[in-house]
Amino acid sequence: MSYVKIFSVVNEQTASTVIARYAISLAAECKAALVLYAAHDEGSDETLLRHTDHHLDHLFTIAFELDIPVTRITEVGNISTLLPKRVQAEQADLVFYPLTPDERFGANKQRQIIHDLQRDIRADLAFMRAISMAKPHPRHILVPFGKFISDREHRLMFISELARSFHAQVTLFHLSAEHEAKVMPDDISKFRQQLQQQEVTVLERKGRGHIGKAITVEAITRHHDLIVLGVSERGALRRFFFGNPAADLMHQPPCNAILFRAAAAT
Question: What is the pLDDT of residues 225-238, one digit of tens each?
Fold first, then answer.
């Protein structure tokens, strides 16, 4: 199983081109079709539109020269309404969405974009925040996990395809809030074996303590250039009392970071 059609949302910000390069590399690895997508509100500033068009032209040329089946789509209107419909119409199975500097999970201002997209898009969804524009090709990918791994099939496909496309090493990082586990949980050991079967180089490490701090320290000290997180499974009440570590880390990550949400089962 592999991705067949990948969407990458492009806007006027340079960070969206870094994210699109991830999508291009993944499309090349999967031999998937690529859609470069932009949506802007009616009456948007002409300078912003020119920057977006320039990015689309540049990315389209890169994909075309790599023999990737690529199309570009530009629409006028609210992206939180247009993008889910377009993804469904094009039957895409993965969407890359670039987070702008002021977009934050849980923030009221962004609820009509981030949270609506997370709810309405019927495909795997990779929210990405680009911190480093100089490293479009990650070599060391950090994948934090708790004791159990949800959406195993989708996460395995995304991480393995991503790692292979960049010839990157993956570190599975098991976090324990209270004490350091003596052995790696069965779920993570099995996930490591599955990645290795996909010809991915895998390391395992353990950590404990505050989740966000532990991931940040691990990423910095081990020189990771990409973190791939899973969407928090905490309910609203638990998030209220204990917070949402993934969302907090995505706001100010130590390196480029992706928050991956698997498509809902149909």
Answer: 999 998 755 444 34
**Quick one: three-class SS letters along 49-68?**
HHHHHHHHHHHHHHHHHCCC
Mean pLDDT of 76-99: 96
**Mean of the per-residue pLDDT values of the chain:** 88
Domain ranges of the chain: 5-129, 140-257
Interhelix angle 46-65/14-30, rounded to 10 degrees, is 20
User: Quick one: average pLDDT of 108-123?
Assistant: 78
Global pTM value? 0.90
Fold of 140-257: Rossmann fold (3.40.50)
Give mean pLDDT, residues 170-174: 94
DSSP of the chain: ---SEEEEE--SSHHHHHHHHHHHHHHHHHT-EEEEEEEE-TT--HHHHHHHHHHHHHHHHHHHHTT--EEEEEEES-HHHHHHHHHHHHT-SEEEEEPPTT--TT-GGGIIIIIHHHHH--SEEEEEE---TT--S-SEEEEEE-SS-SSHHHHHHHHHHHHHHHT-EEEEEEEESSS--SS--HHHHHHHHHHHHTT--EEEEEEES-HHHHHHHHHHHTT-SEEEEEPP---HHHHHHH--HHHHHHHS-SSEEEEEEPPPP-
User: CA nearest 62: which of 21, 11, 96?
Assistant: 21
Helix (H), strand (E), coil (C) string for 246-262: HHHHHHCCCCEEEEEEC
Higher pLDDT, 244 or 241: 244
In words, the CATH class of domain 5-129 is alpha beta
